[in-house]
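Re: the multi-chain job from yesterday

Posting the exact lines I submitted so nobody has to dig through the queue logs.
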Amino acid sequence: MNRLRLSGSFLAMCALLLASTGCKSVPGRPGPQAMRPSEVMSFPVLYNQNCAACHGEGGRNGAAISLANPIYLQVAGVDKIEQITANGVPKSLMPPFAKSKGGMLTDQQIGVIALGMEANWGNVGSGSNEKLPAYTAATQGNAANGAQAYQTFCARCHGADGTGVKTNGVNSGSIVDPSYLALVSDQGLRSLIIAGQPGQGMPNWKSDISGSGARAMTDQEITDVVAWLASHRIASPGQPYATSID
Ligand code: HEC
Ligand code: HEC
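And the result, structure tokens for all chains:
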């Protein structure tokens, strides 16, 4: 096609110019170093262009879950991360990136991102044989038990009912607000509780074991707390008026 013919003549022109100018700049043409978006295979470039706005620069301190978190990376694993990056998370703000799903990245680029996260941010040879919670919940969870586990593990920071704690007149924010819960999946909540938000004050499932008597959450407790949070969802979040008109 047209493009082939053009790039063919561009190459021919370069070959002619190479001896004298090194083909550094041809007026009206992109420089030789300009790539098509689908040719970018650098992890930092792909991450910064596609993910950093939500997951934070360097994989932390973004609005969405930190990806530069060895616990998250270990629990989720490369295959899962590739799959989620390709397909997105329905009904959340996590978009699909695979071209087959209307996104902008090739499967190869998605592989570069998933492997790059593991290589740059994973736990390189920590040798920890601590038993991690499963990525996926094994059961539906029991909201009533979750309410109790919430008191044990979460209330000190998120308030007795989940609506936040006031410090110097500033509320820490509600995690039971239906409009928040409408935009996050149960798996998203589970991942956050397991992996925490490093550097942002949200502990992982081990819940900051420091005080005497403190212990890690069990897998079932994580599942139940998610069920309790999910029980605060409502059918039409953000709609202040009744749906039936007459
Ligand atoms: C030591 C204090 C602390 C404890 C304990 C704690 N959190 Fe958090 N949590 C935080 C902080 C601080 C943030 C905000 C982090 C951030 O900016 O992303 C947060 C964020 C969250 C968020 C995300 C809110 C958002 O806007 O994205 C959820 C959901 C959450 N916590 C649930 C829990 C649950 C459930 C538990 C108990 C299993 C728990 N947290 C225990 C401090 C805590
Ligand atoms: C517009 C904001 C946005 C962008 C851009 C974005 N994400 Fe996300 N991502 C989210 C949100 C929000 C979630 C949580 C979804 C949920 O509720 O489960 C998420 C979830 C994820 C998860 C799953 C976390 C889990 O629970 O296992 C992965 C993996 C992920 N994103 C990777 C990426 C990668 C890689 C990129 C870039 C190619 C990216 N995201 C770009 C917002 C974004």
